[in-house]
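OP here, attaching both records as promised.
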Amino acid sequence: MVLITQSGPETLSIGGDAPDFNLPGTDGKNYSLASFEGSKAVVISFTCNHCPYAVAYEDRFISLAKEFGPKDVAFLAICCNDAENYPQDNFENMKKHADQAGFNFPYLRDDSQDVAKAYGAVCTPHLFLLDGARKLVYEGRIDDNWQDPGSVKSQDLRTAIEAVLAGNPVTNPNTNPMGCSIKWK
């Protein structure tokens, strides 16, 4: 397990404006924040194809997207790992992985790593929840047990999404993301 300490880009502050982007998706479309206009919230997961933490959380992320998508919460994942030194995370392998895993959300490629740096993502997965005004209201982990979904005691992302939908502040807006460090170029 990697406990994250701040050694990479500075993570976007709670209340900060979400940096925009224009990234290609594995579905052949390009996406920006405007692509999710009208959504009450947007959940961004910086992730990859091979990290055991990211893979362990995929089914939970898919389930959250299935549950909250109909409530106007948009979900997307962004892979920003260096594809030259980690070819398992290149765009072609992202397409295969999204299909095999059954992703029900856009899976985007941040080849320049500029978006990951703008958000201050430090590991895979690192989650960012934006409210309707596209302000950051939560960043961190999906929950407190990446290895065993049945032993989760704190469903951090779910709790944050529910707070946003209810019009309430997120009571625990920062949790320590757990995962593999982002593979910077």
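Record two, same layout:
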Amino acid sequence: MSFTSAVFALAGLALSAQSGPKLALGAPMPAFALPGVDGKILDSKSFKGPTVVVFLSTQCPYVLASEDRINALAKAYAGRVAFVGINSNESDSERRKEEGLPGMKAHAGRQGYAFPYLKDESQAVVKAFGAVCTPDFYLFDGAGKLVYRGRMDDNTSPKRDAAILSHDLKAALDAVLAGRPVDPDQKPSRGCSIKWKS
């Protein structure tokens, strides 16, 4: 095993989506119908306008450091852009049980999530999107086409107070709402790897 492989095998934490997700810009939102922490099933067909899909975790330090900013962004664009969080991590093992719906519900309640939080138990949805880490962001325009994929901003560390100079997702949201093209120079997200079922 190479040194790099050993580091990732041992840490299993930071992962940069350098190769990019499978879902291409211009592609439609993959269909899904998933259970949420509110006990209801949410269907992707219910989203009629601009929508942000973000893959989340209850345990990843990168998510924990950024979820206040995610929530603030969802509140700032409420009524104009829909936000939805999806947790695709396996939750069968003892160490990942907080990634299941009960743990997600408790976490979302503590954090006051202003958006639906759904569980992708089969991991079919994360595979359809091609997300590789948490958090990972996808913005679809009013026609349901993917126009942005990548990071929220340039604080891609597990530190809440790191300086932020580039608000990438916000810029993409403003472009969509103004009817302008989204900048094609899109930086990948960075975070914890998706925890796949064995």
